[in-house]
Amino acid sequence: MSEQIEQHIQDHKEALLQQLNTLIIGNRNRFIEQYGEGEQARYATSTKPLVDTVVKAHLSGERTVGCYYAGKASKFLCFDIDEKDPSIPLKLLLFLKDAGFKSEELHVEYSGLKGWHIWLFFKELVPISQLVTFGDYLIKRLGSMGKKIELRPEKSENSRRHQVAIC
Fold this sequence. Notes:
Blueprint lengths: L1 H23 L6 E5 L6 E5 L5 H8 L5 E4 L4 E9 L5 H12 L8 E4 L5 E12 H14 L7 E4 L6 H5 E3 L1
């Protein structure tokens, strides 16, 4: 199963970087970076520009960075799966395909030590409340497998998640 996910990641790696650059990263002059792990994790704002090499290091699990977004709408939804078990992202990918998404629209990345990210991108802004409703529906369909999944963006009332996209 891991080989299937890894192959999907490799097949779509450059497309994911392009989508991040086009739909998520708006301000390259300011981003946040995580230092430390688990309960020791802290975040600091970087004054260096956010360049593609930093984004690629994030995608390969070498760094954890986040960019700011604003408003009550988004052009993306990310399922942040904090579990190494590949059956969870594979099942979620099946649900997304059943919902009408094509394989090339489902961008998967390994998130380092924790698990996986599945990104969806949209041409138009979608209200965060609709994205969360859709994401929560799929997570509930996964039953107990969905307990280790968080959404980005989260509910719009949660101001930290509403301002920063970290996966």
